Amino acid sequence: MADLSHYRNIGIFAHVDAGKTTTTERILKLTGKIHKTGEVHDGESTTDFMEQEAERGITIQSAATTCFWKDHRMNIIDTPGHVDFTVEVYRSLKVLDGGIGVFCGSGGVEPQSETNWRYANESEVARVIFVNKLDRMGADFYRVVGQVKRVLAANPLVMTLPIGIEDEFKGVVNLLDMKAYIWDDSGLPENYEVVDIPEDMVEKANEYREQLVETAVEQDDDLMMAYMDGEEPSLEDLKRCIRKGTRDMSFFPTYCGSAFKNKGIQLVLDAVVDFLPSPTEVDPQELTDEETGEPTGEVATVSTEEPFRALAFKIMDDRFGALTFIRIYSGVLNKGDTVLNSATGKTERIGRMVEMHADERTELQSAQAGDILAVVGMKNVQTGHTLCDPKNPCTLEPMIFPEPVISIAVKPKDKGANEKMSIAIGKLVAEDPSFQVETDEDSGETILKGMGELHL
């Protein structure tokens, strides 16, 4: 069995156009998952594989992938930034242990940034912050840090400082090792050198380093007393304290860079490994009564030794058939196993299991607690349903989705297409819980309800 302490289940979320998908693309390239980066503006990014996403240059649905960094497995979900697709962010956060909040260096904290941040707080998801696009005109790292404090009422713990800004942006100061990381103009992420901090930045770096250390040692009384007596904490102790504070959401390690120019991404990946929690370090999912929805007082302890428990968080139809995305909270799932859907009381046999990389897939024979995967061909599962061991029935904490805010009447082009339209709408409703359909009692028209015009 894989070591759960080396798992990181994370989401990447932001306001639309903050560079979230480009950040994901650079992470996949750095970790060796892909060998050529695709650009959002060319409609070729890995995780924006839908035709509509390529056309519009935005993320519409969440996409899952897996990569590795420093012997740690990262299950990553890239989420939409447009307000019409907020439900994709919400249901992703329900199955994640950590996240990267991406903010535009010039746009700062924008409306959907606030919504995503609120959902992440409600889901108690620990985060690191990446202030992106510092090469863009009007970028100001310190202004964005101030907005995070003021608008989000959050405590950003600055970990890196920008060297240069806008078209002069060339690297960052790492406040952990007090070194400057300078990239050349090739645009390649590996083409950087670690040098002394520029003289004109030494004073500012010392100031922010002091703030970092003072904030971190507050997580350990003994370390704080030693620091007050003039003893500088070791790098190991500093990382341990930052990890604790991040997991407890006392603060949010904050990094800066330019994903498009491949500057600063390595340090963000290091932060995911060093500071974001593993599946065993977050509060376990509560079990609820299927009839009343009230907590039973029991929890789904994250362990491979416990009975199988998983949450279906996304349904998707693609060219190969129906996919049910699940997060396994406990136990082991093998191909051929029979599982119980506690919402319907019916059992289903697991046929094919796949690890997803955007719209590509790798066949799996088994999966364990901590894994995010897709099961092919399940028939009676909906988003939010619990799958479990038939001998140990249970229900995980349910998902509650926002109500639609806009509606339109639809009809087929010709009368003979009614059945086809009904089937298509049925698939949409199964995939997206914020998408609803009803028949107008007076006119008999089919009414579609959704989260906005773009959604519909």
Can you describe what's shown?
With 456 residues, the chain is α+β, with helices and mostly antiparallel strands. The protein has ten helices and 26 strands. The protein has helices at 20-30, 51-56, 86-93, 111-122, 141-152, 202-217, 221-228, 235-247, 265-275, 418-431, and strands at residues 7-14, 63-69, 72-78, 98-104, 126-132, 156-158, 160-163, 171-174, 179-183, 192-195, 252-256, 285-288, 295-300, 309-318, 321-330, 332-334, 338-341, 346-349, 352-357, 360-364, 366-368, 372-376, 386-388, 406-410, 436-439, 446-450. The radius of gyration is 23 Å and the shape is globular. The two termini are 43 Å apart.
How is the secondary structure organized here?
Elements lengths: L6 E8 L5 H11 L20 H6 L6 E7 L2 E7 L7 H8 L4 E7 L6 H12 L3 E7 L8 H12 L3 E3 L1 E4 L7 E4 L4 E5 L8 E4 L6 H16 L3 H8 L6 H13 L4 E5 L8 H11 L9 E4 L6 E6 L8 E10 L2 E10 L1 E3 L3 E4 L4 E4 L2 E6 L2 E5 L1 E3 L3 E5 L9 E3 L17 E5 L7 H14 L4 E4 L6 E5 L6
Parallel strand pairs: 1-3, 1-4, 4-5, 5-11, 6-11
Antiparallel strand pairs: 2-3, 7-8, 8-9, 9-10, 12-13, 14-15, 14-23, 15-22, 16-21, 17-18, 17-23, 19-20, 19-22, 24-26, 25-26
Helix pairs in contact: 3-4
